[in-house]
Amino acid sequence: MIVGNANTRLGRKAGNAECRLYSDRLLPLVQLLTVAACFFCLFLGLLFCEPSAARAGGGPENVLLVVNRDSVASRTIANHYQHWRKIPPGNVLTIPWPPQQQTTDVDTFREKILGVVLKEIDRRGLSAQIDYVVYSSDFPTGIDCGPDAQQFEKRLKEKNPDAKWPDPPLTKVASITGLTYLWFPVSQRLNMYFDLRANAYMRRDIPAQKGCPTLAFSAQQHFGPEGELTEGTNRRYLLSVMLGVTAGRGNTVEEVLSYLRRAVEADGTRPKGTIYFCKNGDIRSRVRDPLFPSAVRELKALGVNAEIIEGIVPIGKDDVAGAMVGAADVNLKHWKSTILPGAICEHFTSYGGIMTPGGGQTPLTDWLRAGAAGSSGTVFEPYALLDKFPVPMMHVHYARGCSLAEAFYQSVFGPYQLLIVGDPLCRPWAKIPEVSVEGIKPGDSVKGVIELKPSATVAEGKVDTFELYVDELRRARCGPGGTLRFDTEQLADGWHELRVVAIESSLIRTQGRAIIPFCVDHRGRQLTLRNRPPEKLTAGQPLELELEAPGATGIVVLHNGQLVGRINGAEGACRVDTSPLGKGPITLRPIGVGATPADYLWGKPIELLIE
Fold first, then answer.
1. Do 591 and 527 meet the contact criterion of CB atoms below 8 Å apart?
2. How many alpha carbons lie under 13 Å from residue 572 in its C-beta half-sphere?
3. Are strands 103-105 and 142-144 parallel, antiparallel or unpaired?
4. Within 10 A of 429 (CB to CB), how many other CB atoms are there?
5. d(CA 486, CA 44)
6. For residues 153 and 159, what is the distance between their CA atoms, to the nearest angstrom?
């Protein structure tokens, strides 16, 4: 379970960082020193970890990116997305999964995927930070929940033996994103996640939610049964989206990278297009048709053009900023329309999220191929139940500045079968703060306590909170005009990264950030790269590194916490096998391992492109 327990935070302090995650693969001496460093880090965690506090809005520091280490496609997509979205290396988790296995059962999902994710969030000290669990690709999209469904049906019948439960029949296959979002009941084997009102983050125009028509998400929020913010309940969630599906009826890796890149570039652009609500006689359309007018009014009040049109899809339109469609088959090859970057498009049909070959009906991936930033579909027959699909207000939440993931999950009551694919952080209509920091410049060498004076500007608003992150962990916060202080004695000598995140004061809580690399120099030592490796390599081409770390007992080279190279002693050469790393931009971290945590040395990150 995700908890804010400092005792589990064996974090990235004292120079040990990612080394501890893979100590079983290091040299025996390094193993011993890694264990010692873990205990030192635990001590520092108890002293210095920033207490948990609810904050929202979403950014790279709040994402856990989950990668299939056995899939080149998954690694390649993750490499690019991590680079584009500036996701810290400590927020990347690689786990094994057979790439060809596109479905599984719920117990295997709990053990091999969800359980691993929750434990790593807790163990890495990220419990108070992670709001998004984002799967790259080549994970199972459909999860057979038959045993849980039987228990759910049994409970319903015990409550009302004379009723026909459930009606319509309960469908027992769930999506990986839906079950991850509903992590608490799923992990605790509480089968109420089948309840079509399981999502209390769903926004509605009711008295209990007055004042919160659109609400930025935080995994620290607790919700009451009517969606009101409260304390002490177990109604907590984790936003979850897949970046891409590259098997079966999915997209090619190149297509996934294309729509993700467009989505990243759409942030803050306020697209000058139209959101189309398509109305026709199909039951798939009629279920949502009555909700279209109010969404159009809200969008126009925000200055976003929206139209209700007759037909299956908008035909011959060059300004599709979003589309809500109701049809089983959507032919996008001849529609002669253009989807603008950042658009959410989906079509409310039974099999849109079934990715196995021969699934029938148009898959959600057709929208992504056409350029949408995100789409969704159910992974098994859902019946024409509105609660299983996003309502039109999704586009209003999006236009108010929410991220794509926030917009989706504020708009669907029962998300257990809904597979959501795309860029969860895309926010075309967000008003993003621009951040400045006094007290440090990129590349500065520092020692002792640093004091930072942050400031920010944001269009039509103001910033009310600044947060300081150092090496993935949040360390301090302050208000406007305040000072962020941090004692660098907590860090090993060498290269580190700080981030100052500004959060604007509205309910949307949009974030902006400044990212600053810096060097800690308490003892006058540094890890040196003695050769000049190529900036580009062909996939599978070995990378030769010559490294020197004065006083170190060994040197390790890490990629997102995975050991990819090592040297016995304080200097020498190692060869990094690039074939398992996937393609795209990657960053390697050399670390000199010392006799005590104070003797560790963090080298400057090595950036390269694998083609």
1. yes
2. 15
3. parallel
4. 25
5. 13
6. 10
Cα distances (Å, whole numbers) of residue 549 to 480, 529, 571: 41, 9, 6
In degrees rounded to 5, what are phi and psi of residue 541?
-70, 125
* Chain segment 566-604, per-residue pLDDT in tens: 999 999 999 999 999 999 999 999 999 998 877 899 999
Taking the C-alpha atoms of residue 327 and residue 435, their distance in angstroms, rounded to an integer, is 44
As given in the structure block, the two tokens for residue 409 are: 């999950």
Do the beta carbons of residue 55 and residue 218 sit within 8 Å? yes
Could you tell me if 395 and 346 are in contact, meaning their C-beta atoms sit under 8 angstroms apart?
no
pTM (predicted TM-score):
0.91
| DSSP per-residue codes, 474-540 | EEEEE-TT--EEEEGGGS-EEEEEEEEEEEESSTT--EEEEEEEEEE-SSS---EE-S---SEE-TT
Quick one: pLDDT at residue 56?
59
Contact 390, 411 (CB under 8 A): yes
pLDDT tens for 214-254 read 999 999 999 999 999 998 888 999 999 999 999 999 999 99
Q: Which two tokens stand for residue 223?
A: 């919700």
What is the C-alpha to C-alpha distance for residues 120 and 18, in angstroms, rounded to an integer? Answer: 12
Radius of gyration over every alpha carbon of the chain, rounded to an integer in angstroms: 24
Side chain identity, residue 147: P
Q: Taking the alpha carbons of 528, 530, 534, 539 in that order, is the dihedral positive or negative? A: negative
Query: Which two structure tokens, joined as six digits, stand for 220?
Result: 């620290």
Q: Within 10 A of 174 (CB to CB), how many other CB atoms are there? A: 29
Q: Given this model, what pLDDT does residue 6 score?
A: 28
- What DSSP character marks residue 569? S
Please state the φ and ψ torsions of residue 152, each to the nearest 5 degrees.
Answer: -65, -45
132-135 and 239-242 beta bridge pairing: parallel
Beta bridge partners of 418: 378
pLDDT at site 165: 64
Which residues, given as ranges, of the chain have pLDDT below 70?
1-56, 165-167
- Which amino acid appears at position 75 of this protein? R
Angle between helices 72-85 and 253-266 (to 10 degrees): 10
